[in-house]
Amino acid sequence: MMSLQACQVVLLLVCVTATVHGAIHEIKQNGNRYKIEKVTDSSLKQALASLRQSAWNVKELDLSGNPLSQISAADLAPFTKLELLNLSSNVLYETLDLESLSTLRTLDLNNNYVQELLVGPSIETLHAANNNISRVSCSRGQGKKNIYLANNKITMLRDLDEGCRSRVQYLDLKLNEIDTVSFAELAASSDTLEHLNLQYNFIYDVKGQVVFAKLKTLDLSSNKLAFMGPEFQSAAGVTWISLRNNKLVLIEKALRFSQNLEHFDLRGNGFHCGTLRDFFSKNQRVQAVAKQTVKKLTGQNEEECTVPTLGHYGAYCCEDLPAPFADRLIALKRKEHALLSGQGSETERLECERENQARQREIDALKEQYRTVIDQVTLRKQAKITLEQKKKALDEQVSNGRRAHAELDGTLQQAVGQIELQHATEEQSPLQLLRAIVKRYEEMYVEQQSAQNNAIRDWDMYQHKETQLAEENARLKKLNGEADLALASANATLQELVVREQNLATQLG
């Protein structure tokens, strides 16, 4: 009886070990779920080959927590029913092309170094947080998609191609590098999008209007927005919205939100009191929701103002500004210039540090959220591959620097040859030689400027002559017209005289 139970356990969980090139990998099976551990780049093909007899049965394949730096769709081609692929917590980098995996529904790529990603038409859920992704391509499919790309290098919504922006239900682009957003670029998801997370980007402008029929949550907190404009009517039906910690000064008073709104958070901005007054006078229910939101989050009826001199309207801090946008823009530009030049005040420096630290805390929390427990041997292999990748990148930088140095050296040598100082290299110091080269370049620049000025002058002269010719042509046309009129008049007079002559001849005859 015990042997039968043991057999059943083996059927439920099969562990296979194999030695390939001195490395041991383990394969664990639970039904149609397979997990491969302790596999490396050199042993991956053999590990996958050992599953070929069961390839028809593999629906979920877990390769997480290994030191894999590369994998291709060709390696996975035998698994024709593969629906879930877990590649998280490896060291995959550069481009990952899985577009030909036409049955793959779920891909977990969290905690890698991938820069560009291509997925197939059946993808429904894509987890790719904590990478270096700057571009994602999705083959056109009919199903809804949930895309999680937090903490990457996305700079605009169009970094996700049209297929990735079509029929999206959940889109998480938190902690990327986006500076402008157009809701119109999500038009293909207008009837599916429910959650949009753009928190902790650098967004200063929102454009385009689309009616998102099912949008429930919109998070644009911790960005650089100064105006909550009419484009936000796209999110009129949301139940949860946050623009906390932006640079908001004004709100479009014509904005209207759903009666189902439950969360409205605009703390940590720099409002003009008048704009809050105008907006809330038209949206009294939103004002009540705002107070409830602040009360729930802080335990207070009003947010705490960072500047004691600020007042309140409703639950939010505000200030009466004679020229709201101009005042805030001038203040921000002055602060930016002061910080860049190292002359910012201690308060401004601390504020900048707080923003950077808050962003870093979010990054650290996200990495911890998706952290995978990895054994020390695999961890050391991952660290080694990561260092090798960094070394490769540095080698490329050094190589590029050497090429640039060689080009500069060639240019300088050419300049030396053009200097009319035959023995300068022997008789002059390097500093004198450099001055001579600079002087030669200045002379060349003057010559180029002179040539450009001459060309501009010649063009102006040509244009002037062309204008004169056009004027002369117009004058001649006018004269020709007058001459034609005079000739026509003379012909008419001549005809009249001929008729009179004939009449006179008739009378005399």
TrEMBL record:
Keyword tags: Coiled coil, Leucine-rich repeat, Repeat, Signal
Signal peptide: 1-22
PROSITE patterns: LRR
Domain LRIM1/APL1C-like dimerization, first and last residues per copy: 323-508
Pfam hit, one: LRIM1_dimer
Ranges in a coiled coil: 349-400, 462-489
Name of the protein in question: LRIM1/APL1C-like dimerization domain-containing protein
Species for this entry: Anopheles coluzzii (African malaria mosquito)
